[in-house]
Design brief:
single chain; alpha+beta; conserved putative lor/sdh protein from methanococcus maripaludis s2 fold; OB fold (Dihydrolipoamide Acetyltransferase, E2P); 3 domains; 6-stranded mixed sheet; 37% strand; BSH_CzcB-like; RND_pump_MFP; HH_CzcB-like; Efflux RND transporter periplasmic adaptor subunit
Amino acid sequence: MKYLSYYSILSLIILVSCGPKEKSVEDVIETGSKSEIEQKRGILNKDMLELKNKLKKLDERLTQFEEDYDYALVEAMELKPRNFKHYIKIQGEATTDENILIYPEFSGNLKEVYVKEGEEVKKGQKLAKIDDGGLSSQLAEMKARRDLAKTRFERQKRLWDQNIGSEIQFLEAETAFEQINNSVKQMESQLNKSIIFAPFNGKIDEVITDQGQVVSPGQTPIFRILNLGQMYVSANVPENYVGSIKVGTEAIVKFGSLEKEFQSQVTQVSSNISESNRNFRVRVAIPDQIEFVKPNLIATIKLNDYEANDAIVIPENILRENAQGESFTFSLSMENDSLGSANLKKLKLGKHYQGEIEVLEGLEASEIVVTEGARTIKEDEKVKVLNFQKN
């Protein structure tokens, strides 16, 4: 019975699947009754409505393909006022005012050198001594004569105050003492030059002349001393920027060899313009935390010569130029989020920097400008925006 029931169910499925087929229009017209013909007509009407809906959807999609083909394809951005800075780029070098060669002020044999290269020294510290050639002995003798002259002068002065002795004797004693005293001072000053002192706090960068050599004023450098704590960058700026570069101007300094960049400002502006190169010099401070800076190290400097708040700025590459040399670009009047028409905008331009340019006249905030495809469209041309950068 179990197998019989399976066969019965299978037979029923076959009978249902092999039921009567739907009559064609021709068969219904030829053999069908009125009700059968009306029923057939209703079925066809329903099929026709479904087909019309499907055709409508296909037409809408085909229209989208036609729009993409008929409209110029562009990219656009909405303008937003922002801060705009312009910089000039110049080259300078690290330097310090406390970097000098020390020359002797006295001729003779370099008797003693008290410091070594790399040694830190204080202002007024003894660095070296030159053989004085017997002047110290002469000074000792002169001081003895001065002491004697002083004693004679003081005695004559006491007598003169008591109205004893002549005025001539008093004046002669005073003059003799003053002369020998002045001679002692001159000799002391001369001998003092035989000792070389540090002119400021710093480091002995180089000992140039060895102990035992003969030295002469203005001819024989003995030491190089420098102070790296007072470093700055010095640079020449063309004279046409004389009105825009001043003390406090922002500066961005880069030492390429150190791979270091920092922000600073101009601390000094020269009042003189060089006749030879028509430049003026500026100083830019180096912060203390910037290490390994050496005198004469090359630096690249960017000086902020212009800044505008709430500026209209566009990419420089979207600009075009007409036959009259006027600059223009295209803004868009949008019909919806993706379709619009191009409007030619003549522009008055300001400074440009790093691929951007300030628009002084011709465009307003919130306008939409073409950023890609501007070189292929015309005024009033319909466009389709593929990429729209909104603020």
